[in-house]
Each structure stands twice: as structure tokens, then as C-alpha cells.
Design brief:
There is one protein chain. The chain has helices spanning 7-42, 46-74, 76-95, 100-128, 131-162, 166-170, 172-186, 200-223, 228-250, 264-294, 299-304, 307-327, 330-349, 356-359, 361-384, 391-431, 436-442, 460-499. It has 506 residues and is mostly helical. The chain has three domains: 1-195, Growth Hormone, Chain: A; 200-252; 259-506, Growth Hormone, Chain: A, CATH 1.20.1250. Mean pLDDT is 86; it is low at 1-5.
Length: 506
């Protein structure tokens, strides 16, 4: 039975939930800032850098709904502690990784830990407070985790620059130790007596399907679509995901109750989520590469540059939620994505090489305004368009859709970015009359994109030409990607305009 806790016990539960959630929230943003440094240290390809992010997102997005079911069945505190321990062990493995392959494997284990930790962290919070005090507790959780997300990129950039990229992962260990200590001593155990069984077939199909699909998409730029290692995994992934639908219709306790998608508003809200969160994942994956490798930012400066987005979202979300209560979600869910599209467009058109205040800050602020206008009404719409008994499933599905959007966007837009980069690089090298020998020696570095360096012994004039061509090509690729994200954000706005009802939410 749910507990109703007040006083010191409630504060301990809130602290454990905030710290546990922050582990996964911070990790998602901090690692992106470290990627250019990781790529340089391991001489890694851009596909390897993608896998450092995608391995984590794959298991987190595929298993997070299963993690919620495990928490209800076997105890929310037990799964919360288990997820935290797995996440901490994986973080240690990441921090000690001797190469990129072992780092990717450890990141996959982090994703499994996160899939247990994320749903259980809110479940222990919800179970520990009465209905009368739960709203205030969730509000405090939201504010504190938002603050953690705000400092995450700046902290990560500083750690990478001042200590080592390994500190980005090792800093999780003392936080995880505090979470486990608090949880075992202060957090009461709770179960859901009405919880159904586990949807293991659905979890296996989702993980294999998305994993195979993403593998093929990431391999395609290097191997070419004619290669079996590109098209065969994509085909296998599509088949597995197609089988997921009939399996979910037949299992007794489906991970994804497909009947919810018959609700037009629920379907539209998740489609809007898919488009918008795809743009965010792609932009914040490629942004550190652009800032560090093309615009000359330090890792610390690149991390700090993201702060205006998070701060603006935190400031605006409160007011957008109240606006949606008064006039309905239709206006913010149309205007918000349009503002986000304007932010992506600014990334594409603002002059390169200028000061941060001129070339980056306006895009960050406008993007933050768009997200702040959208996020709270979108969450409320997802919950309000279904009955109370389905709100937990609806929230979990929407969270999973957001993560799957990022998983797909990094892989798909990675193909686009690589193509734009290579075409522009060839054009710039031709215009600079770089010798055939230098270009031949550059060829093995193609898959490193902005980390490409002039080969040893390259004449100084040619070396400068190569460096300029690489930086310019990465700049153009990022701007082309930003145009693509602006288009996706417009699609998100159109989904809000035509799919979300104009009545006020319940």
C-alpha cells in the first residue's frame, strides 16, 4: 500500500529521488560535451561517437517501461537501489574504459541501470506522499532536477577541461553511494498490489528492433547501403518492430497498451513529442562538435553555452502551464514548436566566428523559449487526455517516445551530416588545390569529421588549407542539420495545430 510520509522521512525520500534521477539526467547532457575530447583521445570515428550516446539511449528507451513494471511487482525501493548500483558500476567501467569498444559496452550497461532507476525514482516518491502533498513533492522534484540539469553541461565541460573526461563518469560514484545509503535507511518499501505481469516478448522485440535499426543506420555512411552490414540490420530491425505491434495486442500485460493511441489527442501529443525531441537530441549531439572543433570553444565554454536553454525552460515552464490551464493546450503546443523552429533557424543563419553573444546566444534563448512554452502543456495534455487509471502508462509511453526520438534522430541525421560534410570537404580541398598525395593520406580520417587533422609532414600552407576546409565543412554540416531540425519543429507545430483540440484540458 502507498505510504503517506511527512516530515523528515518525506525529505529523505525526496532527496533520494532527486539525486537518483539527477544521475541519469546529468549523464545524458554531460557526456555530449565530452564527446569531441573522447573522439580525439581514442582516434574514434563519428559512428563510434554516436554509439557512445546510442548504446545508452537504446537500452534506456527500450527497457524503461519494463523497469516500471519491475518496480511495481518486486518493490519500488528494491528496483530503485538495484538500478542505482548497476548505474554506478557501469559508470566506474566507463571511467576506466581503455578503449572506445569497452566504453560503448559500459554505456549500454548504464542504460540498463537507468531503465530501472528512472521509473522507480518517481514511483518511490509518489508512494511516499499522500495525494494531498504529492503535488508539492513532485514540484520540488521537478525544480531540483531542473537545477541539476542546468549545471550538468557546465560542470561536465569543466571536468573534461580541468581534470579528464573520465571524471565525467567517476563523479557519479559518490552520488550513487549517497542514493543507496539514503534509500536503504530512509525510504520505505512499496508495491503495486494490482500490478500485472512482465511483457518480456515486447521488451526483447523493442530492444532488438531498435538496436538492429540503429546499427544499420550508423554503419551506412561508412559501408554504403549496398553492404550487407548496413541494409541487413535495418531490415531485421524493421521486421522486429513490425512484430512488436501484434505481440502487444496479444500479451496479457502489454508494455505499450496500443488502445491508448486510438485517442486522437494522445496520438497527436506523442507524434509532436517524436518530432520535437528528435530535433533536440540531434542538435545537442552535434552542437559540442561544432563549438569545439569548428568554432574553437574550450570544453568548459561549450558546456556553459547550453545554460541559457535550460534556464529559460525553467523560467517559462511555470507560466506556460498556467496559460494552458486558462486557454487550453492548443496555443502553446502550436506556438512553442514554432519558437523552437526559429531557434534552430538562428543556429543555421547566424554569422560564424563571432562572439558568443552574437553567434550562439540568440539561438539558445529562442530555443529555450520554445521548449519552455511547450514542455509543461505537452505533459499535461498527455495525462489529461486519458482516464486516471491509464495516466501512468500514458506518461511512460510519452517518456519512451521522447527517448526513441533521440535514438533515431542521432542515427538518421548522422547520415545527413556526414554527407554534407564530405561533399563540402571535397569542394574546399579542390578549391585550395590540395595535392593528391595529401588527400590520399587524409582519406582514412573521413569518418572522424571535425577531428580530421593534416597528415604528418604536410607542407604548412596545405596544412592550413586542410584545417580550414575541415572546420568550414563541419560548420556547413551543422547548419544544414539545423535547417533540418527547424523543418521537423515546424512539423511538430503542425501536429499541435491540427491534432490537439482547442478546448481547455480537464
Amino acid at each position: 500500500m502507498p505510504h503517506s510520509r511527512t516530515g523528515s522521512t518525506g525529505r529523505w525520500v525526496l532527496a533520494a529521488s532527486v539525486l537518483g534521477s539527477s544521475l541519469t539526467f546529468i549523464d545524458g547532457s554531460v557526456v555530449n560535451v565530452a564527446l569531441p575530447v573522447l573522439q580525439r583521445e581514442f582516434h574514434a570515428s563519428v559512428s563510434s561517437a554516436q554509439w557512445i550516446v546510442e548504446a545508452y539511449q537504446l537500452f534506456l528507451s527500450s527497457l524503461v517501461l519494463l523497469g516500471g513494471s519491475l518496480a511495481d511487482l518486486y518493490g519500488r525501493r528494491r528496483i530503485f537501489v538495484t538500478g542505482t548500483v548497476v548505474f554506478a558500476a557501469a559508470s566506474l567501467a566507463c571511467g576506466l574504459a581503455p578503449g572506445v569498444a569497452s566504453l560503448i559496452a559500459a554505456r549500454a550497461l548504464q542504460g540498463i541501470g537507468g531503465a530501472l532507476l528512472v521509473p522507480a525514482s518517481l514511483a518511490v516518491l509518489g508512494a511516499a506522499f499522500s495525494e494531498r502533498t504529492r503535488g508539492r513533492a513532485v514540484g520540488a522534484w521537478s525544480a531540483l532536477t531542473s537545477a541539476a540539469m542546468a549545471i550538468g553541461p557546465a560542470l561536465g565541460g569543466w571536468l573534461v577541461q580541468a581534470i579528464t573526461w573520465r571524471a565525467v563518469f567517476l563523479i557519479n560514484l559518490p552520488i550513487a553511494a549517497a542514493v543507496v545509503w539514503i534509500a536503504l535507511r530512509k525510504v520505505p518499501e512499496s508495491h503495486n498490489p494490482g500490478a500485472g505481469g512482465l511483457d518480456l516478448p515486447g521488451a526483447v522485440l523493442a530492444t532488438f528492433g531498435f538496436g538492429a535499426l540503429i546499427f544499420g543506420l550508423i554503419e551506412a555512411p561508412d559501408a554504403g547501403w549496398a553492404a550487407a552490414r548496413a541494409w541487413a540490420p535495418v531490415a531485421a530491425g524493421v521486421v522486429a518492430l513490425a512484430l512488436f505491434v501484434p505481440v502487444e495486442r496479444r500479451v496479457k500485460h502489454p508494455m505499450v497498451p496500443l488502445g491508448l493511441f486510438r485517442n486522437r489527442t494522445f496520438f497527436a501529443a506523442n507524434l509532436l513529442t517524436l518530432f520535437l525531441y528528435a530535433t533536440l537530441a540531434a542538435t545537442f549531439f552535434f552542437l559540442p562538435f561544432w563549438l569545439i572543433q569548428s568554432q574553437g570553444y574550450t570544453p568548459a565554454a561549450a558546456g556553459a553555452s547550453i545554460l541559457p536553454v535550460v534556464v529559460t525552460v525553467a523560467l517559462i515552464s511555470r507560466f506556460s502551464g498556467k496559460l494552458a490551464d486558462r486557454v487550453g493546450a492548443w496555443i502553446p503546443l502550436t506556438a512553442g514548436p514554432l519558437l523552437a523552429a526559429a531557434g534552430f533557424l538562428l543556429f543555421a543563419i547566424l554569422p560564424a566566428g563571432g562572439s558568443y553573444a552574437v553567434s550562439v546566444l540568440p539561438a539558445m534563448v529562442v530555443l529555450g523559449l520554445g521548449l519552455g512554452t511547450t514542455v509543461a502543456p505537452l505533459t499535461a495534455t498527455v495525462l489529461n487526455c486519458v482516464d486516471r487509471s491509464n495516466q501512468g502508462a500514458a506518461s511512460g509511453i510519452n517518456n519512451a517516445v521522447a527517448r526513441v526520438a533521440g535514438l533515431l534522430a542521432i542515427a538518421v541525421l548522422g547520415i545527413f551530416v556526414t554527407g554534407v560534410f564530405n561533399r563540402n570537404l571535397d569542394r574546399r580541398l579542390d578549391a585550395s588545390h590540395v595535392s593528391a598525395e595529401t588527400r590520399r593520406r587524409l582519406e582514412p580520417q573521413r569518418n572522424q569529421l571535425g577531428a580530421m587533422k593534416p597528415p604528418d609532414g604536410t607542407p604548412p600552407e596545405e596544412a592550413r588549407a586542410v584545417e580550414g576546409a575541415v572546420a568550414d565543412s563541419l560548420d556547413r554540416a551543422f547548419r544544414a542539420q539545423s535547417f533540418g531540425c527547424a523543418a521537423l519543429a515546424v512539423l511538430s507545430a503542425a501536429t499541435g495545430a491540427f491534432g490537439i483540440g482547442r478546448k481547455r484540458s480537464r
